[in-house]
Amino acid sequence: MENNVQEPKSEADELIPPGCSLFVSWIIVNTAGLGLGWLLGWWISFLTPALVSPAVIGGVTGLIQGGFGWIVLQSHKKNLFWWIPVTVAGWAIGFTTGTLVAQSLGVSEVGFGLVTGAVTGTVLGTAQWLVLQKSMKRAFWWIPASIFALTSAFMFYRPNLSPWGFVYGMMYGIVTSVALLWLIYAE
Known about the structure:
Elements: H1 11-15, H2 20-45, H3 53-74, H4 83-105, H5 110-132, H6 142-154, H7 165-185
Helix pairs in contact: 2-3, 2-7, 3-4, 4-5, 5-6, 6-7
């Protein structure tokens, strides 16, 4: 009788469940990427006309977060070259549109964050889905996960507190890491 059970390589392998390193690394890169991107984008936005500030904040955030995320994704899925460009575009377009919608509705603080998060999450999730759907069967679920992640994260939005980007990143990373694990391991 053949034994199909693989023996663990080490005691540490036995203690670490499958996907745990992906879960933790995804949270770390999104906390750092969104936090650093948000902070840098916020600083750069002071050098630009107010009209383009949201696009600058979003674009810089997308570049850094997308780059960091791509590093982790490459170890699990190949051919994700477009991840960084679509993340930059998704953030720039989504955050700009989200802030315009929130401003036109006249909402502030929590309401502003919820509207901006929902719009940004929709645009970003859809842009990233275009890349993920080529290698993951259930990639469509990335869109609602992104909407929920950014809406939850931006609920804490405070326009004059750029360091909050790290909080946004951690919340986004936690929610989307669960979705990413499911998408990768459910195949």
